[in-house]
Specification:
Elements (H helix, E strand, L loop, with lengths): L6 H4 L1 H10 L32 H14 L23
Length: about 90
């Protein structure tokens, strides 16, 4: 169940988020971020993203949450020979 997994093990998108927030390279990740900057997206963007400092504050909040994850961040969905079988130690 999800409460027994590290954040990055729950879903590949969350694994990519963990890599991004922790500043880790994601070149071995099956999933990729989009090359577009936020202001280049077409369509509606949440109003909060237009508030000065919001995106950095949210990034720091996510980093704090991820660093407090007691299950660690070594479990992975990365495209390796043994995906999701890495030890979950801090």
């Amino acid at each position: 169940t999800a409460d027994e997994m590290a954040i990055g093990e729950i879903h590949p998108d969350l694994d990519l988020m963990v890599d991004c927030v922790l500043g880790r390279p994601s070149h071995e990740n099956k999933h990729r971020t989009l090359p577009k900057r936020l202001h280049d997206f077409e369509g509606r963007i949440p109003v909060a993203y237009e508030l000065n400092g919001y995106t950095m504050a949210r990034h720091l909040e996510l980093k704090s949450i991820i660093l407090e994850d007691e299950r660690g961040h070594n479990g992975t969905w990365h495209d390796t020979s043994n995906p999701r079988k890495a030890e979950n130690s801090n």
